[in-house]
Design a protein that fits this description.
Elements (H helix, E strand, L loop, with lengths): L2 H20 L2 E2 L2 E2 L15 E5 L13 E6 L6 E7 L2 E7 L1 E3 L17 E6 L9 E8 L7 E8 L2
Antiparallel strand pairs: 1-2, 3-4, 4-8, 5-6, 5-9, 7-8, 9-10
Length: 152
């Protein structure tokens, strides 16, 4: 097992433990935790576009996280993780390519659908924020995207 695998597993474990304490959200109501991790439908591609994965100096209140997806994902949205504290954005809303904040990553697959999950509040300064996908219609634990950014 290499360091990246250990780090990815550790991050997922921390998110699972932190969200297990409060449960996943279904229709904005906390529900008892379920030990399974959210799974994307077969063949669906996703990519975090904004904030750019690995970016530093991201505003403390980015207002949204934007993804490119290959197929609509009703009821899905963003979950974020800071240390051992998770929080949820709103369900995805479809936006146009022109509405993606800049700077942003370029989609790595053809014909992406652009979706945004609104965030409320702000993150602490100089903090690493992990980005996860959350199926709001399920009690599953959010799925890691392998993406994070650091606030200014």
């Amino acid at each position: 097992m290499n360091i990246r695998s250990i780090a990815a597993w550790s991050g997922t474990a921390v998110l699972a433990l932190s969200l297990a304490a409060c449960g996943a959200f279904k229709n904005s109501v906390p529900t008892p935790p379920n030990p399974s991790t959210c799974v994307l439908p077969a063949g669906v591609q996703t990519q975090v576009l904004y904030p750019i994965p690995g970016a530093t100096g991201v505003p403390d209140a980015p207002q949204q996280i934007v993804f490119a997806i290959s197929t609509p994902l009703p009821n899905w949205g963003v979950a974020t993780l800071i240390g051992n504290t998770g929080s949820y954005g709103l369900a995805f809303q479809t936006i146009t390519a022109g509405q993606v904040p800049m700077p942003s990553a370029t989609p790595s697959f053809a014909n992406p659908i652009y979706v945004s999950s609104a965030l409320t509040g702000s993150f602490p300064a100089a903090t690493s924020v992990g980005v996860y996908l959350n199926n709001g219609a399920s009690d599953c634990l959010p799925l890691t995207t392998g993406a994070s950014f650091t606030t200014q």
